[in-house]
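Hello again, I could really use a second opinion on something today. My current little project is about how a certain protein chain folds up. You're getting the sequence in one-letter code plus the fold written as tokens. Here's the protein in full, and shout if anything looks odd to you:
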Amino acid sequence: MKRLGKALHLSTHGNLIVRLDEGSLPKVNSSVLTKKMEKIGTVYDIFGPENRPYASVKLSKGFPASKVKALINDRVYTA
């Protein structure tokens, strides 16, 4: 499990936007987890400036919206 970055907000399309940590560049479709090892979803897209990129995380269908709001400003991880 590696640190991915900090969860910022939900996009208008319902994806979780994550600011990636330095040196963290995940592969598209890699799993995204909470610190309790709950699967949030998968990396859908990587965008933004080269030195501080962002990731769009497509949420799993079974992951409740109430838990997503609790993740804002928390670290998320990738497997």
In short: The chain has one domain: 2-78. The domain at 2-78 is CATH 2.40.10.230 (Thrombin, subunit H).
